[in-house]
Amino acid sequence: xxxxQAAPRVLLFGNLKGGVxxxxxxxxxxxxxxxxxxxxxxxxxxxxxxxxxxxGIDGDxxxxxxxxxxxxxxxxxxxxxxxxDGCELPENVHLIPASRRLExxxxxxxxxxxxxxxxxxxxxxxxxxxxxxPNLTAPTTAGYRAADAVILTTFPDPLALRALAKALDxxxxxxxxxTLPGRLLGVLLGNVPGSRRKGPTGLEGDLLRYLESRLGGxxxxxxxxxxxVSRSIAVPRAQMAGRTLFQTDPKHRVTRQYxxxxxxxxQRLEAS
Length: 272
Ligand SMILES: Nc1ncnc2c1ncn2[C@@H]1O[C@H](COP(=O)(O)OP(=O)(O)OP(=O)(O)O)[C@@H](O)[C@H]1O
Ligand SMILES: [Mg+2]
Known about the structure:
This protein has a single domain (10-271), classed as Rossmann fold (3-Layer(aba) Sandwich). 35% of the residues lie in helices and 12% in strands. It has nine helices and six strands; from the N terminus they run E-H-E-H-H-E-E-H-E-H-E-H-H-H-H. Strands 3-2-4-1-5-6 form a six-stranded parallel beta sheet, with helices on both faces. It is globular. The two termini are 15 Å apart. 49% of the residues are buried. The mean pLDDT is 87. Bound molecules: adenosine-5'-triphosphate and magnesium ion.
């Protein structure tokens, strides 16, 4: 990984389908980059507060994304760090939390949504990681407008083909709101069952082969990230504890996969 730079790279985790790993990947990639010395900001754009809760914070008790988008606060004024009482974020990771109040920030017919004001963060961060809602709410649209790179996330479940179609729709929609498909950094497959030796079999194996044929192989030349993240009970356990695996289970197989994924993301960002 290379040294710090002035402007933060803005990395968005997206998919218009719910429950396909956006939040889990966002906070774990942040934790992995943080472990590697990157100064990371997780910015939660979802009123359901996935990333905020995954990092052990009750967003309704803090100012955050809502106040930034309504102009009541500047981004740097609402950043939460581990210095705050009761907050234990991963190393080098800060958070702008979401709250239920974010539902107040709505799209106005006929008026374009301004991009998330990432420039106001100055040079405080190397990477800003946006966790988005599974629909084009005003905050999520603002995120797509600000993103330098988009990672589409998907899971191998029985609705996977539909999920993938939706994911590819996201590309189309994001191009309409100003995020060009050229900013798609890759498609990330997570929550994949299967043994370490054999890898995914059955439906999951079929889906993986479908993704590879549709998006290019996993040797780094296609859209699919070569790292796939395994399914493990350790993930929801960490989530329930309001922590990442880097805090609860640093030697876990999935923790290792996220470390590898973060390096792959860095390589793709540098190449793009
Ligand atoms: N590797 C994994 N192993 C086991 N469970 C996982 C794994 N990754 C994610 N999950 C579980 O899958 C569920 C959905 O994940 P997540 O919340 O990250 O998706 P999402 O796309 O952010 O959902 P939403 O659209 O509702 O915000 C969560 O309950 C999470 O614990
Ligand atoms: Mg989420």
